[in-house]
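SEQUENCE, STRUCTURE TOKENS:
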Amino acid sequence: MSNLPYSSERLYYDGKPQRSSSGKTFQTIDPSNGAVLADIATSSNADVDTAIDSAQSAFPSWAKTSPASRARILLKAALLLRERNDELAKIETQDTGKPFTETSTVDIVTGADVLEYFANLVGGGGLNGETTQLREDAWVYTKKEALGVCAGIGAWNYPIQISLWKSAPCLAAGNTMVYKPSETTPLHGLELAKIYSEAGLPPGVFNVVYGAGDVGAYLTAHPSIAKVSFTGQVSTGKKVAGSAAGNMKYVTMELGGKSPLIILPDADLENAVDGAMMANFFSTGQVCTNGTRVFVPSTMKQAFEARLLEKMQYIRPGPVMDPATNFGPLVSAVHYEKVRNYIRHGIEQDKAKLLYGGAETPCTIEPSLRSGYWVSPTVFTDCADTMKIIKEEIFGPVMCILTYDTIEEVVRRANDTELGLAAGVFTQDLNLAHKIVAQLEAGITWINTWGESPAEMSVGGWKQSGVGVENGRRGIEAWVRNKSTLVDMGGSVGTVFTKL
């Protein structure tokens, strides 16, 4: 018997946990102290096939279930998620390393919000089509129909939230899903599947498989998969999208970013500093939409940096279940080394000025946590657009400050990237803010705030940052296909093939 905190994770299909046939396992680690949480059973290709078969068998009945009936089940699942918020948040904290103060107030809550949103949307007629009268005796009507079996590939930074962002619209639209969590943070998968089943979801509608990229590649390339929804890094997303598009599968891709946060000269200094800190250090910087390129007017640079340094003391790394802790470790040993290498590169090769932090473990971390993947919140200034730390996504708590002199200049430099996920402006001149936002090449934009992504807001990247959107009314469209029908009631068929 294992003495680990969690039992060997089982894959899930036909409405119940199932044993893997691969005989292989991988480990999930508590990032705060490096301790092993569980041995996770890797799904074999045969396991994936069986999970897909289960989803295929369940699809016809689920697709024919009325939207109102589907909505009732999903609303019950949302209720169960809220009732078990703290229990699930503790699992997320142990698996991701994010402080409990964050997971208990954000991760499950925002996932349940999306589940409720799409349940209410389809229950209230959100899948209704359109009717158009062409002429007195001819009509066109449209229907939105489910796609079939869909694959969801999760990300490690917001595990349960992202699993709900994918499964909520998928299931609400009448599809079934085979979901693969990230191998770095897999513990939520079985918990969500059991909640869906308890809420009344029929067996086979939501299924879970486990493993690394090879399992995900086999799942997404499977001929029975109608759609792939992927969240992750750009390079992997391109491969997944290429494979899916080559087989005419529907895709939604939410990929990386190198987002500009523009502070205008008239911005309130306190709000600007708070916004920049939230856009760089929340979730230890492991957020795809983070505003890691902070553009500050040259005239404000000194005041901005002084206030920022005063507020850096309010970032409190420590025991992740401690109510005072608001900053956790990085998610894994591999990612820890990646982020530290970027910080070292910024210092040694880019020659940016290190204003705060660095590649070392925060000095306040207690001995029992020293085996975890802790890195100091870091601020670089006097940065240039050509630096590696400015051009590449670090995905860690690294803020880079750049200065500018004119609005035309800052807009041009903000857009000078292959990525286009998010962007934002801080100013007291809202008319000017709207004009600048209209010029920014990004799919998600904020004015005088950063990071909030409510269920009602459709989000998605431009350029290399993704394809399609999630959430909001447009979000459901990514999970349905359109059927248009023209009905002619004139009693005769117009034809050119008549006798002269």
The longest helix spans residues 100-123. The longest strand covers residues 138-146. The chain has two domains: 11-255+465-484, 260-447. The chain has a mean pLDDT of 97.
